[in-house]
Structures are given as structure tokens and as C-alpha cells.
């Protein structure tokens, strides 16, 4: 906080300025021009090394508590300071008794008017009542079973009470209020109280008081890391002020100012990370591919005609590949829009240029499926295609590794196994990752590092609105396949509850009798009492014994061994399994055109984009398909989400709604980009700040891409600290 002779009445203003800043101020009718010369308590600056100290250095945190904090992801002082409240309870306003409304949580200042009355309602239930008064009326404070309160109050004393109001038939009550002596500064009343997200046995009170101790530890001495010019331009409060007011806001405005700054900085850092990756890769020398004259002929021999969107995207890719710089391109396209063929054609170009191409996918099932379809696609070409997954027998693997290294295979399809250390390529020219939200920036980079700046193509199955994509994939160029192949039938979607189960089962029987196949997806593998979810294992047993004794029911889940999974999938593909019960492992990419029914148990437990992905497994052949969502929740949000699934098949719209209803959370978690998680920003409601943060990041990188200027020193320190282990900071920041 800056020192100022003009008193503390407008402290909030000084809080957000820095030493040596000049400001104009009008007060008591006079105009002042002030230069802030020094600040209080800044003699001992808090360094990053102080922030990374173990949480146990905070007063009140012993070994046992430290472990509880660890459980919620708090290891250091810094983790604690950036553990933001999920909500607040506004106990700052004191209302007159006459003003209180039924149902509200509020403070009243009341003078005790009666002795405590005890009323035994029945065994085990006693009610304690106290009549309170102010100059506008009376209200009864009511507690249940709190005998220890009997001798707490004396008639004539005044307290602040905070609790829920019940106001019926002109009788006002405040239920189970907490209270404090009215002449002291409130600890629990008369202020805004933070509510923290909790999972373990830490209580709100413990977190609140440890947070206070944390602030005592750092004082107001954190170094400001946002450059002054940026803070000024975007009207962002100072870091100490922001942190203090996000945890313990004095006023609602204070909170808003704090939040604005913290949201901005979070998005700003994300942008700087992404843009730095981009500028770094743009400065690199890339492999220059020449035009491939056979491409057109190859395309004309495909069993279908490419859509306009596919053709456009392929020509965008061709241009990239011929530029002599490494391509970094993202293909966004809804489920079923035909991203695979675009990837395959890019790999074709690569191989025809004499280089190896690799395709990395998140699951073995998907790898296997791509392997089969690539073999089909390229059967008349002189190309060696191989598959590399974790379950390949050792002997075979050794030979494979050698073939890859010596350049005897051209196309390598695989899972994470591709990025193992032992895998070396002869001349890797193109890296494609499918369903990229499963891979982080780092894994992509690791694969790319196995070649000399190869081209990178990323395919995502979670399409997001373009404006957002431009920002979130700041490290990539974006192509969009915004068109489905012709003749696709819309999947009919129905939301049902338990009462329709019999009808759903007979519908399944009918479809199977017509030769079709069915997926039934449930959220968990083993019975979990906590969630009361349908367990796949239990469900399969029941279905086999009671419901479909004459049909073949298979079970697929993540805990099966890879060869078991493969066997089940093979039997489903060839049609010998009629009904496949599965956890979400079939979500990505699996292609069985004969499957026409997708039943999803506990659909309310899934994200919308995930439901859309699952639904994308059907509607792939010539038969009409049906998606049936069992919704067991009565909540309004759940119903609204189900309705969206029923109304639209457009993945872009669905992801936008998903974002709106659920918040970014898991949707754009670390898995998405591999950069630090978003803790406070909401990509839907903060889109305006997101744009400003992007603008600020672009400008900063233009001016000083290596963060060498003196005024960016602290920022650079902070970025390195934030991004270490996430991306290769050494390359970006040239350290
Ligand atoms: P996704 O974009 O979800 O990965 P795929 O690449 O798996 O979609 O394509 C879905 C299906 O559509 C595949 O069976 C594929 O062969 C087929 N397909 C792709 N492009 C076309 C097209 N232009 N015309 C007809 N079918 C196509
Ligand atoms: Mg796909």
C-alpha cells in the first residue's frame, strides 16, 4: 500500500498504485498532483523463493494439516495464496429489523430484550429463543439444541447477529445465528467471508484463518509482476491489493477490481505461453515439401468425393507444407466430418516427399482402427505402414523400432508408445495427433522433437467457437471442416427416465432383430455406492441373465488388458456381439457403421461435449440411428443440458453451451493445452477480458519477444516459474 498524507478515507485508490506513479486526485474540493514516493512495509520484498516455501512454514500449519492441504493441491505458500474462494458470503451489511426479508441471510444489530427461553419440544430436541430489539422492531433469535448458549446473553447488551431470516405472519425470526459483540471489529460478521472449495477434512474456518496467516507471512510485499504499462492501460489493480481482495474483500467493488486483475493475468499468461511457442516455432527452419503430382489421381480414386470443406483444408495444409517452415495447424471438425482422410492425405504428401509420417492417438482401439483403414486406403501404394502400441510383444517391438529407425517404414501409427525414449525415427517429416484434447503441448513437442522440426497437424474432436479457438489455440493455425459428408442421417435423440426402461429394452431387441448393433454406455466400472451409478459389470450381468438372454452382450472397459479389449472390439466390428456395454473408452473415434443405438446411463454425469462424442459413434451407416439418454437427475441444469442434446447435433453449438453451463473446468483443463490450469477465469463469461489479454500479449511479444527489457524482468521470472515443467521454457526464454 502506498503512503499518502491525505488520510486513509480513500485507501482503495492508493492501494492500486505503485511507488513512483503520479496521479491526480480531487479531495475536499482541491486538486492535488501526487507522486507516490515510497510505500509502507516494502523493505522486505517477497521473492519467488519465499512463495515456493512449504505450506508448513505458515503459522498454524503443522505436519498433519500440511498433509490435508496437500490433498487439495496446496503444497506451497503460493498455492495457498492462489487458492481462490469459490463463493462469498456477504455479511457486510447490517439491516434494520424492519427491513429484513424472509429467506435472506443477513446481519442485524439487536439488543437483548428477554432472558433466554428454553422449550423442550421432544426428547433430543430443545429450542432456545431470545427476543432482540432495535429502534425499528423486534425479532426472535432461535437456536436448536445449543444448551451452552443459555447463559451467554445478558439483557440490555447489544450484539451483531448473522443468520437466515424467517418472516411469516408478521413474526420475524433469525435462525441459528452466529453473533459477535457489537463494539468489536467483526471477525465473523460485518464483512464479506470467503467460501473455499473443500474436499478433505479442512473446514472453512481453518482455511480462512490459515489464509489470514498466509497474508501475515507475505505482508503486502509481493513483487508486482505485471508491467506497469499494461496495468495502467487495462486498468488492473496491483497484485497485493488483488490477492487481499479476492480472499478478504472489503467491498464488492474491491472484489470486482481484484477479480478483473487476476482473471486478466491468468489469461495473459496463457496467451504469452501459447504465443511464445508459436514465435519460437516460426523462427525455425522447416522441411520444405514439394507438390505431389500423384495426389489428384489418388483423391479421385477414393470411394467418396471429398467435401468442399475437406478440399479447402487440404489445400491449406499443402500451402503450409511447401513453405519451408514447420507447420503447426489444428483441424477442427465435428464428429464424423471426415478429419481422418485429411490427415491421411497429408501423410501421403509427406511420404511421397520421402519422409516418414507419424499418427498418434489416445487409445489402442483407435490406433488399431486407423491402422486397418490406412492399410486399406494405401493398399495399392508402395508404403510400409506399422502400428506401435504398448501391447506389442517385445520381440516384434524390437524389430519395429529398428525398422522405424532405419526408415523401412513410412507411416507409423501408435499411442503414447510413440513418444518413448527408445523410439527414434529415420526422417520424421509430419506428426499428426488425433483427438488432441488428450495430449498436452508437451507430449506433442516430445514427438516432434524426434525429427528435425517436423510439420505438426493436430485434430480435435471437441470443436469450439472460432473466436475462442483463435485465442485458446494461439500456438496453432486453425482450419475448420464445417461440413458433413452428404447423406448423413440426423441421429434421433430421446431423453428418458427410469419409467421408460422396459420400452427402451424392447426397442433394443427390435433393432437387434433387424440386424443392427447397440452401445450401452455407463460412467463407472465398479459399483460405487457414493454415486449410485450403474456399474457396467453389474449391468452386463443383469442384461445377460434377465433382459437379453438370447443375445450376445459384450463388456468393454478401461481396466481390461489391451488384447482383451481388442478381442471384444473385433467381435463387435464383425457383428458377433449384439450389444456392447462400455465405459467411455469407446468415446473416441471408434467406427462401427452397423451400430444404430446408443444408450447412455446416467447421462447427466457426462459433459455435453462428451455426450456428443458418444453420440457420434452412431449414425455412421445408412440406417436411421437413435440416441437414448437416461437422465436420473431432477435438477434444472441437468434438464436444460439434456434438452440441448435433444435439440441440436451441432458440435460447435454444444460445446458453447457446455462452456456456458459447466464453466471451463475439465473442459479446458491442463489436458487441453498442457499449460497452467485456469483457476479463476471463465472462458464463457470472461471472453471480453480474454480478448484484451490476448491483445496485450500480442503487443508485448511484438515489442520484446524474449522478455529482455528491464520492465519485463519480474514478468519473465514469473513466467519461467509458472511454465517450468509445462513447456520447454529453455527454448522460449533462451535461458
Ligand atoms: P471424424 O472427423 O469424426 O474423425 P472420420 O474421419 O472418422 O470422422 O470420418 C467418418 C466417416 O466418414 C468415415 O467412415 C469416413 O470414411 C467417411 N467419410 C469421410 N469423408 C467423407 C466424404 N467426403 N464423403 C463420404 N464419406 C466420408
Ligand atoms: Mg476421428
Oligomer classification: single chain
- How many structural domains? 4
Give the full name of the CATH homologous superfamily of the largest domain: P-loop containing nucleotide triphosphate hydrolases
* Range of helix content: 25-40%
Mean pLDDT across all residues, rounded? 85
Shape: globular
CATH class of the largest domain: Alpha Beta
Which class do the helix and strand fractions yield?
alpha/beta
Distance between the termini: 34 Å
> How many strand segments?
24
Helix tally?
Answer: 25
CATH fold assignment of the largest domain: Rossmann fold
The whole-angstrom Rg is 31 Å
The CATH architecture of the largest domain comes to 3-Layer(aba) Sandwich
Q: Give the low-confidence spans.
A: 1-30, 34-42, 526-533, 664-673
Strand content: 15-25%
Which small compounds were modeled alongside the protein? adenosine-5'-diphosphate, magnesium ion
Which strands sit side by side, in order, in the main sheet? 14-15-13-16-17-12-18
Question: Which terms would index this structure?
Answer:
single chain; 735 residues; alpha/beta; OB fold (Dihydrolipoamide Acetyltransferase, E2P); Rossmann fold; 6-stranded parallel β-sheet; 19% strand; globular; disordered N terminus; binds adenosine-5'-diphosphate; binds magnesium ion
